[in-house]
Amino acid sequence: MIFDFAGLAQGLLLALFATATVVSAHPGEAPPTPREIAAGKLYRRSAQTQYNRCNGSHQSLQRRHAVNTQVHRRQKLLEQLRAHATRRRSGSDYASDVLETSHVSNRTDITSNSTTSAVFANSTDACVLQPEVTIGPYWVSGELLRSNLTDEQPGVPLYLDAQFVDINTCDPVPDLYWEIWNCNSTGVYSGVVASGNGNVEDESNLNTTFLRGVQRTDENGAAQFQTIFPGHYTGRAHHIHVVAHINATLLSNNTLANSADTGAVHIGQ
Ligand SMILES: *[C@@H]1O[C@H](CO)[C@@H](O)[C@H](O)[C@H]1NC(C)=O
Ligand SMILES: *[C@@H]1O[C@H](CO)[C@@H](O)[C@H](O)[C@H]1NC(C)=O
Ligand SMILES: *[C@@H]1O[C@H](CO)[C@@H](O)[C@H](O)[C@H]1NC(C)=O
Ligand SMILES: *[C@@H]1O[C@H](CO)[C@@H](O)[C@H](O)[C@H]1NC(C)=O
Ligand SMILES: *[C@@H]1O[C@H](CO)[C@@H](O)[C@H](O)[C@H]1NC(C)=O
Ligand SMILES: *[C@@H]1O[C@H](CO)[C@@H](O)[C@H](O)[C@H]1NC(C)=O
Ligand SMILES: *[C@@H]1O[C@H](CO)[C@@H](O)[C@H](O)[C@H]1NC(C)=O
Ligand SMILES: *[C@@H]1O[C@H](CO)[C@@H](O)[C@H](O)[C@H]1NC(C)=O
Ligand SMILES: *[C@@H]1O[C@H](CO)[C@@H](O)[C@H](O)[C@H]1NC(C)=O
């Protein structure tokens, strides 16, 4: 499965996440062995090759339609965010201060003049989801189906739009439940009290749900979240955890019956 991911951060303007490799572990988690790292690399390379074959084949019609829809959707969101940010920054020269400054992405082919399809339809920006990777100690079951995960946490607002594509059929994957979680701007995860996760004395953090949630993909395999840009904590690059739940059942209280230990899941970050 491939996961095409665009993140729009207010203030940062645009961050594209390329394939992420697990290079280090969370506290309490064994780091991957060299054999696992090599197997992961091989998997991602062959999946990417298979995905690139979708381009131009007879199977690609639906995919192309989905990409066009996706470019249009992301362009609309970007326009809304730009208008909003321009209003908020009426005192400064937004165009030269922000739009022409490179933030985060190492893509040198993007300028403030790039077309939205060059920015949003680049298949080399897709991430491969491996069938199973360790879910890690900071996953919490029973998160709510909701798009805005902010829960009043201060930080740089981050808008995520992802499309899931089955590399075997080249079709988008509808009705997939996309779950994400990330730490807050000072590097602490909600719902967990553990050494290495903020103040271990603060048991009230067990009751928090910030920056965690689930969304269901639409007919284009797409779904969106609003969160905040993940902060830093020791030993890791900034990252967002991702789980794709397939064949999950939504309960009447808006949580998934199919948790990470049942049914098919794809895990990454
Ligand atoms: C996909 O096909 C289009 C049109 O044929 C081409 O311009 C583009 O470079 C191809 N992309 C990849 C990743 O092969
Ligand atoms: C950009 O960064 C990604 C992730 O670190 C890396 O895989 C890629 O090679 C870089 N691309 C360039 C053109 O430097
Ligand atoms: C964008 O286009 C304008 C008008 O053609 C040009 O003056 C400007 O230098 C371009 N900016 C970049 C970053 O390419
Ligand atoms: C896609 O991105 C790669 C680098 O990430 C860049 O070299 C390439 O020119 C881009 N293709 C398009 C069509 O924008
Ligand atoms: C998301 O929730 C935060 C509060 O947690 C709020 O400030 C923000 O406006 C909400 N975003 C949208 C798009 O409603
Ligand atoms: C991050 O979460 C922790 C635990 O709830 C909290 O103590 C801390 O104040 C939060 N960071 C910010 C910037 O609010
Ligand atoms: C968590 O919330 C429940 C319900 O409001 C409350 O009974 C419990 O004491 C809270 N736990 C902590 C550690 O704050
Ligand atoms: C999902 O459920 C359908 C119908 O029961 C089944 O055919 C399919 O294999 C399941 N997919 C996965 C990935 O478990
Ligand atoms: C939702 O319902 C399930 C099954 O009854 C229950 O286990 C879970 O605690 C509920 N979650 C919430 C947030 O109420």
UniProtKB/TrEMBL annotation:
Location of the Intradiol ring-cleavage dioxygenases domain: 147-237
CDD domains reported in the protein's UniProt record: intradiol_dioxygenase_like
MF-aspect GO terms: ferric iron binding; oxidoreductase activity, acting on single donors with incorporation of molecular oxygen, incorporation of two atoms of oxygen
Domain of life: Eukaryota
Coiled-coil ranges from the UniProt annotation: none
Signal peptide: 1-25
Record's keyword terms, sorted: Dioxygenase, Oxidoreductase, Signal
Protein name from the UniProt record: GPI anchored dioxygenase
Organism of derivation: Pseudozyma antarctica (Yeast)
